[in-house]
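tl;dr need the bound structure. longer version: we got a ligand (GFB) that a collaborator sent over and nobodys looked at where it sits. i said id run it. heres the input, straight from their email, havent touched it
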Amino acid sequence: MGTVTAADPHPSFLADKDAKVFVAGHRGLVGSAVLRRLLALGFTSVVVRTHAELDLTRQADVEAFLAAERPRYVVLAAAKVGGIHANSTFPADFIAANLQIQTNVVDAALRCGSVRKLLFLGSSCIYPKFAPQPITEGALLSGPLEPTNEWYAVAKIAGIKMCQAYRIQHGLDAVSAMPTNLYGPHDNFHPENSHVLPALIRRFHEAKATNAPEVVVWGSGSPLREFLHVDDLADAVIFLMDQYSGLEHVNVGSGSEVTIKELAELVKEVVGFQGKLVWDSSKPDGTPRKLMDSSKIQGMGWKPKIALKEGLVETYKWYVENVVSDEK
Ligand code: GFB
């Protein structure tokens, strides 16, 4: 048990490493990184469930699970996620699954009576398409959303509001973190439904392996994106669990952005593909730019550590060792 003093009846998160922590979504990009970090820090009682063991879209199952486990902390990293194509092709799945998962987990976390803190994870796509850059937390709900992912964005905005409402009405210490575009090990490398960075790793790798002359990249190449390695996000999640109890959500970004063209050139170089890039302008660009203003969390003392090139080299290695070898 962590240290409890008379002045502070509750230990901080990092001083409470034997308390039970439920990581929802531990097989995904974010949840797996948070789990790795918690275990590395010496947390002794981390509870996880696979999708087959617990379907988080089923309210009664989630209530029964949390009532039985009674965790002290919850990290809500479970979500239905995907890239620009998946978001625009499966809008019903994205809005329904995300609303169900987050509503069930936040509500059951309150009802089970044991949860001292919950952290909900969203996304930079909650902000208006043409928000002033860099985007501050205050830009939320100040303009229309990017149409390719508005269904997912509306669900994530509802999650922020759910945390705020439960804090105001019930005193639940529920906080929200909004990461920028993430990448790293355990990402989804699906050819169509993934995000741009894993999609390009797969496409360049397969083109190199088959000696293909060219690789197709979607859109114009001009949109700007900010990328953050998921291990940096996991550090931020632990930091916020320990340090932050505010009503407002918190942006988590790297502060550096690249055009999709620059990203494609970088992935090409890291993978070692020698051919040409061809741009498919029939595919959408999505939002032109979404650079987060992360001065709030940086002002509290968190900083990203992993540069894009370094993270890309490591992620490509992970892809070759885990995804490529599994598919053989
Ligand atoms: O990563 P991505 O799907 O996410 O696309 P968003 C980023 C940019 O990369 C877009 C281009 O301009 C795409 O057109 N792109 C180029 C590609 N080639 C590819 C490719 O092969 N696959 C993909 N996926 N893109 C997502 C949202 O938006 O961002 C989600 O849809 C979520 O809801 C996530 O918020 C963080 O940055 O456009």
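gonna send this back to them w/ a short note. The CA atoms of residues 137 and 251 lie 7 Å apart.
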